[in-house]
Structure formats: structure tokens, C-alpha cells
Amino acid sequence: MLKELEPLVDQLKMCRGDLQQALDGLIPEQLFQPFPNAQWSIKDEIAHIAADESLQTELLRSIATGAPSPLPPDFDPQKYDQEGVAKSRDKTLAQVWSDLEQSHARLLNLLDSLTPEHLERRGSHPLQGMLTVKEFLVIIYSHEVNHVRGIIEQVRRFRRSSKAA
Fold it and tell me: For the CA atoms of 75, 79, 82, 84, what is the dihedral angle to 10 degrees?
């Protein structure tokens, strides 16, 4: 792996560890309860992270290798997110977590194969426009951190409410 990617990989692994730690001790009902003013639960958020990481890894691979984008011209990110979470509703948390681990492994395998030349290649991100591979990696990391922070805040709400009860 490229030396310059090692800090990013360390941060991704730390974020994943923070997520796992936050989930420890939650009861099943908490995993399925929607966030305040939202439709998704912690389990839904995890499913979203897994689906998005898989998609972004494939987009990243296409940019790095110069292959055509795997996205259709009429790709709708919001529809993709909603459909991805809906597909996971019948899965157990263990299955969703397995999806997350598999998507993470695919991303790490891709990162391990990148060369300095790959990092400077440019391609289209569905929300951010034209980016280098290096910039795309920052988007992937930022997306995961954003969702993990939301999950951690939801866990804190649960813990505060259980102490107050």
C-alpha cells in the first residue's frame, strides 16, 4: 500500500472500531428505532454505509483504471440510498454487519492496489462532480465519519434516556 494512503486507512479502521464500540450493549429494539425526525434506524444507517461504500469503491475502481462508470446516466443518489436501505430491512443485524465488513474489505483491497498515478486520475462523483482518486477517497472517509457520528449520537440519546428512567 502507498505510504500516503496509510493514514487514511488507519482513520477508516478507527472509525469502524468506534462504530463497533458504540453498538456494544445496545438492545435489539434500539437498533431498529428510527432516529429523531428521521426514518432510518441504526441498522438502516449501517446498511446505508455498506451499500454506499460498495458503490463508491466500484466508482473509485472505474476512475483509477479508466473504465467506464458503472452508474447509469440517470443515476439518482437519493433513490439509490432509499432502495439500498429498503433491501436490507429483512436482513438481520449480523447480515448487515457482514455486508459492511465485505464492503470495507473490497475498499481496502482496492486501496492496496493503487499506484501514485492512480491517485491523480480524475472522474465523476455523483454528488461532488469531477474529483481525483485522492479527493474521492476523502469523500468516502467523510461520508462514513458523518454517519458513524450520527449513530454514536443516537446511542448517546439511548444511554441518557435509560439513565433518566
Answer: -30
